[in-house]
Amino acid sequence: MARKVFIDGDVGTTGLQIRERLERRDDIALVRIDPALRKDNAARLAAFAEAEVAILCLPDPAAKEIVAACDAAGGKTRLIDASTAHRTSPGWTFGFPELAQGQRETIRAAARVSNPGCWSTCAIALLRPLVDAGVVEAGAQIAISGVSGYSGGGKAMIEEFESGAVTGSFLYGTGQAHKHLPEITGYARLVRPPVFVPSVGQYAQGMAVAVELSLPGGAARAEEALRAHYAGERFVTVVDAAAHQPRVMPQALNDTNRMELSVHGNPETGATVLVAVLDNLGKGASGAAVQNLNLMLGLDEGAGL
Q1: Which residues, including other chains, have CB under 8 Å from residue 181's CB and lie 6 or more apart?
Q2: Count of CA atoms in the C-beta half-sphere (13 A) of 224
Q3: Which residues pair with 146 in a beta bridge?
Q4: Would you call 118 a catalytic residue per the annotation?
Q5: 145 bridge partner residues
Q6: Other beta carbons within 10 Å of 54
Q7: Residue range 88-142, pLDDT digits in tens
Q8: Cβ-based burial of 236 (10 A; exposed 0-12, middle 13-18, buried ≥19)
Q9: Top-level class of domain 3-116+285-296
Q10: Which of 57, 70, 118, 122 is flagged as catalytic?
Q11: How far is CA 235 from CA 70, 126, 299, in A?
């Protein structure tokens, strides 16, 4: 029997991609409402009640509002939130299955799962295994930079680029208040937030993230720890540095749910650069949501991916 799933907000970029992935499957039945009622809480709550799992693809305030409405209605539907709203909230499980031993089992049993952000997926994937292994100190001063396609900025940014209102690439978040910083700090087990300066490129999707730090004599240990952590993983792979040289191509894994990690740097100075590449709309958003959904429903983790 097909499992019933409701996508609240399937007209946005992430929601559309999740819907497209699930519509191709015969083991999933999407619960639908009249498009004219997509902002009607009564219709939405009825759809939540019909579904086994609901996926929220909403702005943060709207996600918080509908979760509160579900609570008030006594709803039992399990939730996946693709917004930033609940990523560090008590009672929510962080939806990065490869995070640590036992995380998959926690997601499988969870009532509420918060999808990671695309930037944080890359940063946490690189840092958490190294902090756990003692290769990177939790109190280390860490810098993170990178580039994402403009689709990562959501509907408003997509319209800016596609209308021609914005041209060229740019840096942002220089005030060190980026919305992904709390989850990066918390789930990478850092004592203090890293310095994080992201940028947007003039292309639609794909992401490359660099974590810069000093590891005197430790770059080889870093790669060893990453390879040990992700050994046997289906969607996260540690590759030789040569795979991301002489240029790191952020679009290399577009339309996949894969992420590639590599370790670069100068062994004489200890300057080390950890690199992650993924599709910000795949493993960084819709693909991750489908992966979490599969786990929560007890299905093959790679179904539809």
Answers
A1: 193, 194, 196
A2: 9
A3: 198, 209
A4: yes
A5: 197, 210
A6: 25
A7: 999 999 999 999 999 999 999 999 999 999 999 999 999 999 999 999 999 999 9
A8: buried
A9: alpha beta
A10: 118
A11: 33, 14, 16
Q: In this predicted model, what pLDDT tens digit does every residue of 185-228 receive, in sequence order? A: 999 999 999 999 999 999 999 999 999 999 877 789 999 999 99
- How far CA 278 is from CA of 206, 252, 258, in Å, comes to 6, 8, 6
Find the farthest-apart pair of alpha carbons in the chain and give their distance in angstroms, rounded. Answer: 63
Where in the chain are the domains? 3-116+285-296, 118-280
Give the 3-state secondary structure of 236-284.
EEECCHHHHCCCCCCCCCCCCCCEEEEEEECCCCCEEEEEEEECCCHHH
The rounded distance, in Å, linking the Cα atoms of 82 and 95 is: 10
Tokens of 199: 């940028």
User: What fold, for 118-280?
Assistant: Dihydrodipicolinate Reductase; domain 2 (3.30.360)
96/127 Cα distance (integer angstroms): 13
